[in-house]
Predict the 3D structure of the following.
Amino acid sequence: MNEPHVNLSNAGRPGDDTYKKVIEEISGHKVCPFCQEYLANYHKNPILKEGRNWLVTANMYPYDNAKHHFLFIHKSHIANTEDMPAESFAELQELIAWIVKEYKCPGGTLMMRCGDMALTGATVAHIHAHFIVADYENKDRKPILARVG
Ligand SMILES: [Zn+2]
């Protein structure tokens, strides 16, 4: 595959260059960090649930101010939602319902970038969805900001 697997210019986070350094390292390896044969090299959090098409885990680099930041990583390598089988969308809905119930989430944000990373803010091309839960028990919670576009 000749397409880049990661996008370094989207990896910057204000006041913290940890994530940018991780993406920089992965970029040098020229592999897809979310493909199953490489995932364990880069992702150290446990797989919370394995579905037919997805792995569910917690993001190693959660967005600031999130109480939970889950990732749904598609098990096969695709980079565009239009290439996703309908069954994957259906299963994603089931897995979100599982997360909501398991972690008693009163609300969350589902986000999935796809296609040209220069236009989406994505750092990893391989399809994955984020489910981000605000710190709902903290009445002084701050907003969670994410790069889009
Ligand atoms: Zn991949």
